[in-house]
Amino acid sequence: MGIVVQKYGGSSLSDAASVKRVARRIVQAKKAGHDVVVVVSAMGDTTDDLIDLAEQVSPRPPAREMDMLLTAGERISMAVVSMAINDLGFSARSFTGSQAGVITDAVHGKAKIIDVTPGRIVSAIDEGHIVIVAGFQGVSGDTKEITTLGRGGSDTTAVALAAALRADVCEIYTDVDGVFSADPRIVPAARKLDRVSYEEMLEMAASGAKILHLRCVEYARRYDIPIHVRSSFSTLEGTWVIDPADTKEEDMEHAIIAGVAHDRSEAKITVVGVPDKVGEAARIFETLAGVEVNIDMVVQNISAAATGLTDISFTLPRADGQTAMGALARLQEEIGYEKLLFDDQVGKVSLIGAGMRSHPGITAKFFSALASAGVNIGMISTSEIRISVIVDENQVEAAVQAAHTAFDLDATEVEAVVYGGTGR
Amino acid sequence: MGIVVQKYGGSSLSDAASVKRVARRIVQAKKAGHDVVVVVSAMGDTTDDLIDLAEQVSPRPPAREMDMLLTAGERISMAVVSMAINDLGFSARSFTGSQAGVITDAVHGKAKIIDVTPGRIVSAIDEGHIVIVAGFQGVSGDTKEITTLGRGGSDTTAVALAAALRADVCEIYTDVDGVFSADPRIVPAARKLDRVSYEEMLEMAASGAKILHLRCVEYARRYDIPIHVRSSFSTLEGTWVIDPADTKEEDMEHAIIAGVAHDRSEAKITVVGVPDKVGEAARIFETLAGVEVNIDMVVQNISAAATGLTDISFTLPRADGQTAMGALARLQEEIGYEKLLFDDQVGKVSLIGAGMRSHPGITAKFFSALASAGVNIGMISTSEIRISVIVDENQVEAAVQAAHTAFDLDATEVEAVVYGGTGR
């Protein structure tokens, strides 16, 4: 049997008892004949506690030192998981990101993995050990400084190690049963997906589904690593994130729509009355890039011929709202726009499915469902396999429910009730 | 000006406020024109908390993983001290033991430093940074595994770095004002020593004085690094631990007796009725070495000619008492001794001073003082500059006080009172 990479998040490692539970789970995989490499996040609230400590000491801690501090969190969890495994009679060895050969660029706080050189891991596997690796961290190839990978970093560590070790699968253990067709807190009839393609998972991650981070899925797609997202609290099969072309099952169900995602972390800015001249839009977005604000959706209306003015709206992370407004305000005289509007009471609802390519009419059906639910659409953006709309924040739930039902995503056992409720 | 190495212990780094206070102190040294290298222990109770966590997970955590776990403690404190310095407008860089080039043997939990290769430290100093180094930890030269140095490890790290960097001084910051002539909790008239020689400090450390660890003093003597033990809560001069030959002051006070140390951590075992034959004592102590019990004092009585039997008494760490008794019990038939006596209600009181060599009569005066105080002597052992006695545990305080007074160690301002109290 081959190598299995497992990743356990902080919510699966909240205390000594859960560390022991995870250890038993790891040992099961070893007993089943696999070579097992485990990636761990920091236990429970450790990372938040360390951030609190840093904030008490300094309002602007240097990023290099912040990385030194935060990497202590995974160091603690990898050591105790290893201890718990040894206590079950199996031999485990823990390794930091640096020791595991996770080589990154030198950008502290959000480093990117540029190479994995897992020589020590391979040796430890060959010696029969279960290997525990600290997620979220690496070492800069140039500066030899310790780095962290930023949000979703432990998932990315797991997939990158799985790729470097040519593992059979990368299992991402979490506190839910898998990837759902919508957030079950909003749609009680949401279904666990048995399979989802890399490209659909990418769009879902980019559209606010928090279960897997974008970078981790990109990495898995590039190296064709099957991800199995599953619960650390049950032995049920979870969701496989794979390339559909890899599956040999002829009768694999190809749903047209994989799911409905939503995101409440964005805000909308509208630049009103921009002179409709070449280069004005470029000036605006260059300015935002200059202050490191990432833009998501952009809409520009056709200019009214009479005035020669146009409006440009875009969405951005809420946390960057004041930075962006400040930078644009400094640009008013130069560009000569009329005014800026800021709205942080918005939400994004996205319909995602590879079947969109071959099935016309999806957009019409989606918008019709939203209309029937009384949801007003503010902005629209699409990709080949995704349709996203910006709506009022307080209409997000209604929009997600309406879309979920309209595309027959509701679970069978409650189908009748839900269909009745929406009337379509 | 040259390099100053400073070491701050956990009691000086108990919370964010004390971290900031230490940072101000470090910056003062930098402002005074020194290149500053700081060695830190884990903050406050961090190490104990991590040990508790390990014990919750496993009753017998592997030493390698324990080292991985515990080294997180200094990693946290070095990062936050560095942040606090940066916040004061000075540039600081933190380094783990491994990054600082602290090369050890491969004995987890009590590794010995075998080399220091401080290339990164030197570069950081040359770039103008204040350097913060995690104490207590290193990396094995052979196995590349992370190691910890055991008790007193951070002091040893500081002295080893001071030696490798050819520092002018190694300042050990603690929560008391320096090295005292006796424990001030027992002898209120105990005096802070301005200077003490390496060899006296070694004997004091070996005799129970907890202020500096034996290994740290050994390292300082070997490389002739002046240690300045001082309080992190005041700017007073503390105690200089030096080679008296290095001082140019003709009038340096050479006290005959440096101080009185005591130790309540030992127990006494007596093997009664051992046949007085060649090799029996060796058998006993080989057995104890085999179960890794370290012996301190040993006394063998001359055998009574009539019986051909002798008694052998020795002291050992109390924590090893049951291990030693078990090992010896298994030896009874082979050796044929009569019985074993175990006494953990003992204490050791030691008189230490380089002047003993040239001043006869010290032993007589010491024993006489103990007799006057009604203290019964159980065992005696001596070195060139030390006399140690084992007494009943509840007579330790009286013995320390009597010796301190008899050798004129009491501070001047309370001299009359104390002399009156002891009657000599």
TrEMBL record, chains A, B:
<dbReference type="InterPro" id="IPR018042">
    <property type="entry name" value="Aspartate_kinase_CS"/>
</dbReference>
<dbReference type="InterPro" id="IPR005260">
    <property type="entry name" value="Asp_kin_monofn"/>
</dbReference>
<dbReference type="InterPro" id="IPR036393">
    <property type="entry name" value="AceGlu_kinase-like_sf"/>
</dbReference>
<dbReference type="Pfam" id="PF00696">
    <property type="entry name" value="AA_kinase"/>
</dbReference>
<dbReference type="InterPro" id="IPR001048">
    <property type="entry name" value="Asp/Glu/Uridylate_kinase"/>
</dbReference>
<comment type="function">
    <text>Catalyzes the phosphorylation of the beta-carboxyl group of aspartic acid with ATP to yield 4-phospho-L-aspartate, which is involved in the branched biosynthetic pathway leading to the biosynthesis of amino acids lysine, threonine, isoleucine and methionine.</text>
</comment>
<keyword id="KW-0547">Nucleotide-binding</keyword>
<dbReference type="InterPro" id="IPR002912">
    <property type="entry name" value="ACT_dom"/>
</dbReference>
<comment type="pathway">
    <text>Amino-acid biosynthesis; L-methionine biosynthesis via de novo pathway; L-homoserine from L-aspartate: step 1/3.</text>
</comment>
<dbReference type="GO" id="GO:0016301">
    <property type="term" value="F:kinase activity"/>
</dbReference>
<keyword id="KW-0808">Transferase</keyword>
<dbReference type="InterPro" id="IPR001341">
    <property type="entry name" value="Asp_kinase"/>
</dbReference>
<keyword id="KW-0067">ATP-binding</keyword>
<feature type="domain" description="ACT">
    <location>
        <begin position="269"/>
        <end position="354"/>
    </location>
</feature>
<dbReference type="InterPro" id="IPR041740">
    <property type="entry name" value="AKii-LysC-BS"/>
</dbReference>
<keyword id="KW-0220">Diaminopimelate biosynthesis</keyword>
<protein>
    <recommendedName>
        <fullName>Aspartokinase</fullName>
        <ecNumber>2.7.2.4</ecNumber>
    </recommendedName>
</protein>
<comment type="similarity">
    <text>Belongs to the aspartokinase family.</text>
</comment>
<keyword id="KW-0457">Lysine biosynthesis</keyword>
<dbReference type="InterPro" id="IPR054352">
    <property type="entry name" value="ACT_Aspartokinase"/>
</dbReference>
<dbReference type="Pfam" id="PF22468">
    <property type="entry name" value="ACT_9"/>
</dbReference>
<comment type="pathway">
    <text>Amino-acid biosynthesis; L-lysine biosynthesis via DAP pathway; (S)-tetrahydrodipicolinate from L-aspartate: step 1/4.</text>
</comment>
<dbReference type="InterPro" id="IPR045865">
    <property type="entry name" value="ACT-like_dom_sf"/>
</dbReference>
<keyword id="KW-0028">Amino-acid biosynthesis</keyword>
<keyword id="KW-0418">Kinase</keyword>
